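Anyone up for a design puzzle?
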């Protein structure tokens, strides 16, 4: 008979064991949860794509895109373009072109880069025939970044020159001022010239001191007559830019492309400083540049707000702003206005230069690219409009100071506005040094943000083509920056301004429009808009911007990519050809050099297409065409866990094309996932083990079948 006390002890011991077991299970579950949470946190914070790297945060990418899109053109080109094309009425075609051209191309490129995790040189694996588009993008970015950094160098020169008690361009000074400088030439009646000063009042509208040889102009008695005889008072800031900064000597027949002249060491140092800053920022990849843009991308907005507050306190500001926003609706009948609006939208967003693809290629796979496209596109355009209010408040003030019309002091925009008109306006203000420093720091930050992405586009493409060099990225960036610096030395000569204008006219003009058309054809018609929209939905899900249904937008994108956007771009391209005007001051042979830059991009697109077609396997034209217009085995997301999502709507999609342990034509299939296998001679057992063959032996008869293989 069993001892009752022993049974009680056994039961008690069993209860204790059960309790301990429950506690162990509880601790195990808690430990698993902690590990899972830490793993999830690590996945959220760390690199999703360890081989290529990702942005440190979503804000890094957003600010980088915004800094790339919002550049110098927003400040010095858009305001003048608006007043020349109807003032406030220009906002109507500008907004329409944003919706029809700007956002569709912008969104297309961001989505393409994020889905493929590839830069502009390698993201065309969905249709190898179009690989030349990426080559063209890299050429454009390389050409533009060479001269773009020269503008940054000018801004640095002016910034350093501003750290004085009195701005050096505030008044005409020897040795850089000529006899036409504003302070040297007075406005007075003709009788005063002769009676009060004893000068000679010529029929050309000017008064001369004839007591010296050669005679010197001292005053203008009729501005209209004098201007018709090429006699005009010149702002000291214009003399300072041309003769002191750029070293252009007007008495030496204005050196140009045919006579570059010597290199100016001050500009060389500023150019070198610009390239060193770009190199140091990019040498660690997007991790380092993503942090720098927190300052460089936000500072311009702060300065614009400060400048506007100061501008509206100046006398005459309202005249300038009224001149800017007064609508002239009759201009909407002109095709030229719509062409200019489309051009400005297209180039202000930096679409089809490859930079957007390069930036988004470092995104995590499920980033809401739709939201980012809208934020950056509208943010860029609103910045342009806002900058117009800032600029024209100062133009109104300057017109009031000079007693001239706003259109007279506005000039033609561009470098004239940034380095002539505004610097002269601040000389008429109290504490002019402060306002000059703020303005030129803003120009530097606007420039370097765009420059970061231009160089990143080139280096990313190189690293994608030669992935083994990724561990030497810092060295690669340094080599490219050094090469671009050397190529930019011609821009530091007397003829550097003409070289810059030549590159600005031809490097990123019509060729970029042709790239955009090719993009629309490749995605909309060859790869298929429906397939691409499904790819996007795989990344962002059924809800965009947090709450909006994706289905409400995707057919709009399809219509734009397939029809609306390419048609509008063709219209802009044709009208640009009709309205083409060469740069008059450049020699005729310079046009050939400019067209060489333009055609190098177009030739790259077609030459690469021909090479891809000729090298494609197949005996007939149709077989080769199918190969070069169909996705390759490695097209798609970089990581297998994301590629498995594509198999839900592309059953024959290869999950892991980069498994180095397999034969070159074999691909491992993850557990339970569907992939393409070939049924050799009608025998599924011929599929070797857990692998499937992309291409069966030539001696076998085969047909594709859908198979699910368990690991």
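Challenge accepted. My sequence:
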């Amino acid at each position: 008979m069993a001892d009752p006390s022993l049974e009680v002890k056994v039961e008690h011991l069993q209860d204790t064991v059960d309790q301990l077991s429950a506690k162990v299970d509880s601790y195990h579950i808690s430990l698993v949860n902690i590990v899972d949470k830490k793993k999830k946190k690590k996945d959220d914070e760390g690199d999703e794509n360890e081989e290529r790297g990702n942005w440190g945060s979503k804000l890094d990418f957003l600010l980088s895109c915004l800094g790339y899109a919002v550049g110098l053109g927003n400040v010095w080109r858009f305001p003048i373009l608006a007043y020349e094309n109807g003032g406030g009425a220009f906002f109507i075609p500008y907004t329409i072109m944003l919706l029809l051209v700007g956002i569709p191309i912008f969104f297309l490129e961001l989505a393409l880069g994020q889905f493929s995790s590839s830069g502009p040189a390698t993201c065309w694996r969905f249709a190898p025939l179009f690989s030349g588009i990426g080559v063209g993008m890299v050429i454009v970015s390389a050409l533009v970044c060479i001269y773009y950094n020269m503008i940054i160098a000018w801004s640095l020169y002016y910034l350093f020159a501003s750290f004085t008690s009195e701005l050096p361009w505030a008044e005409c000074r020897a040795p850089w001022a000529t006899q036409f400088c504003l302070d040297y030439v007075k406005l007075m009646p003709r009788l005063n010239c002769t009676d009060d000063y004893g000068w000679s009042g010529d029929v050309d509208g000017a008064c001369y001191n004839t007591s010296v040889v050669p005679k010197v102009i001292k005053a203008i008695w009729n501005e209209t007559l004098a201007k018709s005889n090429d006699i005009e008072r010149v702002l000291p800031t214009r003399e300072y830019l041309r003769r002191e900064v750029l070293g252009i000597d007007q008495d030496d027949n204005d050196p140009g492309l045919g006579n570059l002249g010597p290199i100016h060491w001050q500009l060389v140092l500023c150019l070198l400083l610009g390239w060193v800053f770009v190199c140091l920022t990019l040498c660690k990849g997007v991790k380092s540049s993503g942090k720098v843009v927190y300052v460089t991308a936000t500072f311009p907005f702060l300065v614009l707000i400060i400048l506007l507050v100061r501008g509206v306190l100046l006398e005459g500001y309202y005249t300038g702003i009224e001149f800017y926003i007064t609508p002239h609706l009759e201009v909407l009948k002109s095709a030229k206005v719509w062409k200019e609006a489309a051009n400005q939208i297209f180039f202000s967003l930096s679409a089809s230069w490859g930079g957007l693809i390069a930036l988004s290629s470092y995104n995590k796979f499920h980033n809401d690219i739709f939201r980012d496209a809208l934020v950056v596109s509208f943010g860029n355009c609103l910045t342009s409009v806002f900058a117009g209010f800032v600029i024209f408040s100062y133009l109104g003030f300057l017109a009031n100071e000079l007693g001239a019309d706003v259109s007279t002091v506005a000039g033609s925009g561009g470098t004239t506005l940034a380095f002539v008109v505004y610097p002269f306006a601040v000389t008429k203000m109290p504490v002019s040094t402060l306002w000059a420093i703020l303005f030129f720091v803003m120009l530097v930050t606007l420039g370097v943000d765009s420059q970061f992405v231009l160089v990143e586009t080139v280096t990313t493409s190189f690293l994608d083509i030669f992935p083994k060099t990724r561990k030497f990225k810092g060295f690669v960036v340094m080599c490219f920056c050094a090469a671009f610096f050397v190529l930019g030395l011609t821009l530091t000569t007397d003829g550097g301004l003409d070289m810059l204008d030549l590159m600005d006219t031809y490097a990123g003009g019509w060729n970029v429009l042709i790239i955009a058309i090719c993009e629309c054809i490749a995605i909309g018609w060859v790869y298929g808009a429906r397939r691409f929209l499904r790819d996007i939905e795989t990344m962002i899900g059924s809800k965009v911007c947090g709450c909006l249904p994706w289905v409400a937008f995707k057919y709009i994108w399809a219509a734009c990519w397939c029809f609306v956007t390419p048609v509008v771009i063709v219209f802009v391209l044709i009208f640009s050809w009709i309205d083409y005007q060469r740069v008059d001051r450049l020699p005729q042979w310079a046009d050939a050099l400019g067209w060489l830059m333009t055609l190098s991009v177009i030739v790259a697109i077609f030459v690469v297409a021909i090479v891809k077609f000729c090298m494609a396997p197949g005996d007939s034209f149709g077989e080769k065409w199918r190969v070069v217009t169909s996705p390759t085995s490695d097209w798609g997301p970089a990581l297998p866990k994301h590629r498995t999502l594509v198999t839900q709507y592309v059953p024959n999609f290869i999950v892991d094309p980069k498994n180095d342990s397999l034969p070159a034509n074999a691909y491992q299939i993850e557990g339970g996932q569907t992939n393409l296998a070939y049924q050799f001679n009608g025998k599924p057992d011929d599929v070797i083990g857990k692998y499937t063959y992309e291409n069966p032996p030539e001696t076998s008869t085969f047909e594709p079948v859908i198979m699910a293989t368990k690991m």
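A detail worth pointing out: The first helix runs from residue 4 to 45.
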